[in-house]
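Email to the structure team, subject: EGF-like domain-containing protein model.

Hi all, the expression group asked for a predicted structure before they design truncation constructs. Nothing fancy, just the tokens so they can compare against earlier work. One-line instruction: predict EGF-like domain-containing protein, return tokens.
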Amino acid sequence: MSRLTSFTNRNTLLDNEERRTIVRNDVREIHHETVHYREAGNVYLRETGRCPRFRFPWWLWLLLALGLLALLGLTLGLGLGLGLKQTAPLQRCTRNNCAANSQCINNRCECDTGYYFDYGTQACTLYRQIGMSCTTSDTSQQCITNAYCSTNGVCICSSGYYLDLSSGNCLALLPRYTPCANDDQCQTPFVCKIFLCDCNQTSWYDSGTNTCKRLGLQNDPCSFTSQCISTANCSLVTCQCPSDHYFDDQSDECITKQFIGRTCTYSYQCISLANCTSVSPFSQQCECISSYYYNTTNGQCVPQLSYGTTCLSTYACLNNLICLAGSPTNFTCECLSNQYYLSSNSTCISIGTYNDSCNSLPLGRPCNTRVGLNCSLSSSTCQCSTTDYWNTNSSMCTALLFPGQNCSALTQCINASYCSSLTSICTCNTGYYYNSLSLGMCVPTQAYGTSCTSNYQCNTGIICYNGLCGCNTTVNYYNGSQCTSLVTINQYCLSSVYGPVCDQVNSALICYANNTCGCQTGYYWSGTKCLILIPVGYPCTSDTQCIANSSCSSLTCTCLSTYYYNTATATCSLLLAYAQSCSSTTQCQTGMICTAINSTLSECLCSSTMYFSASSCVSKVTYSQTCSVLIQCDDTLGLVNRVQSHPTV
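Reply from the structure team: attached below.
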């Protein structure tokens, strides 16, 4: 048990061997065996047999804890405590206290790989991938490497790069002969062809300019065959299709030439020594040229076989030779039994056939009349009659084809006709028509005024009208070469036979001396034709419709004010002057009346209140008005003319 002793004297000195610790006004003394301390003015002594224990003050523990927290904050980069504030990107640093997603490199905070410095947020931000939105006004590199922010506000790969879908990165475009997956990965102008970047199928690579150039077509210049289109060869510095091909300018290809019997359009499409021949009006096919036949063994047109040559079929023999059996196993080109072989022209000569000479042999050479041939005196050759043509298919004379029948050559049609290349039908020549009823031939078309039954019988420009070649006179006139429309009101005309002629039938127009079409006297133009002028008293719509010296007043034809309607002549006559004979006052001028002079005569005179002066009736003066002669005074009032006139009252 400890024993405490209180000391009353506060200033008593402690033992020299004691250690002292003073905090504020308290003193703790520690000895190996005895502890003396003072508190509140008293000194206490505690004795113990245990070793003395050292105690830390509470504030020391607090300081130690704060130090540990500061060290932890520095380690974790949290910036807690003194001296641990984070450094912004692009700012100078001395230790790794940079902001998130950045680190201190060469004494400056740099954004980590895959991040960029956003000036708006002042922080390191993850790069935007291709297709993500971005801000064009931000000058910082927002998009991944080799990409930029387009004007549309979207990250896209830069020129010369493509988007690698597997990595999401923009990779450099691939050069020629580099493995690829699609065209977008190749440099311009290459495409991905068989998984390698190369020129497309229609071009070749020019190493000098590193460009792809169009493959040369037929006759285009070249240096190598690889510069020409497929199948073509570079021959004498130009691209040429092989001899068994032709160039098709529609597909720009070399196409294999057609064999014999195949359909064609042009001869160059056929194999060598063959032409494109019409076999019907609507069909053409390749056929070997004359003196050649188609050898099925080598697929070529070869020269026909001469006399005595081994053959397999007659079409292989030259001219009119036929393939005859000389023995059971040997066939040769021979002449028929009624023919002989003329070596000078390599042909079998017998009875003369078409175009054969018929007077070169002794006693003359007869023509084969069984096929319709006769010896022409003018040419000394076997010819068909003028009504036949030589049919090469049947080897006999055949009646000439009439217009409307199918044909294949000009010589097949009757005289004055031809085989139309468009329709392959016999057609009469221009200026001819087919007279099938009487002559059965093409005859000249008929001139103007010649009798006819159909329009096609007349010359061009005229028709068959009323049994004569001419014009429909109700709408046309003949101008000397063709029918022309009649001219109408106010148009130019001539009185000659060939006009221009006015439309007299439909419009009643005539040609006046001034060479202009107009209505004849007593007619007016209604807009389509001439009509008789409307007499006085009948309805009208315009002045031009009314007879002379009248006008359309209140929709009725009325004589003009200085005219009266003369029933005897049905015209508007000029009003009668003073003293002219009359039958009605309506015939007299204004102010006059038709006055009977005797039983047989009436004249236009002034009324009793008027007098005649200077070609008109003037009212008489009354009382006290000025007058010069007695006639001026109104005698009905008994007035007289005084010598001295009086002024008017």
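The longest helix spans residues 58-76. The longest strand covers residues 274-280. Ping us if the truncation boundaries need rechecking.
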